[in-house]
Amino acid sequence: MTRNVPTDHAFVCESCDNRWYYTRERCPECRSTTADAYRLQQGEVVTATTVHATPPGVRSPNRIGMVRFEHDVTIVAQLGDDSAAGDTVQFGAVEVLRDGDRSVSGARLVGLE
């Protein structure tokens, strides 16, 4: 099941209809190896916080939050600077989320205006 899937996609198990976000070899519920990817649309920020003590290469302050999408798919991700609980967000453009030796790129969740 390992594949190169865009960061704005989640997975649904073809056997049991379980849904999850992070790429896995097997369904966490039934252990099936057959799943389809689908695009996450808009999500609601459940909780958010600002981290001031960040690892090297990570912006400071760093706004992160827990966001719930359709079918109860919930992720923790970097947020736009002003997103708060109750806000509706979607995946933004892919950016460098961490610089340096362990450079990581991904989409930041941004609020809808």
TrEMBL record:
InterPro entries: ChsH2_C, NA-bd_OB-fold, Thioester_dehydratase-like. Residues 42-85 form the ChsH2 C-terminal OB-fold domain. It comes from the Archaea. It holds the Pfam family OB_ChsH2_C. This is ChsH2 C-terminal OB-fold domain-containing protein. The lineage of its organism: Archaea, Methanobacteriati, Methanobacteriota, Stenosarchaea group, Halobacteria.
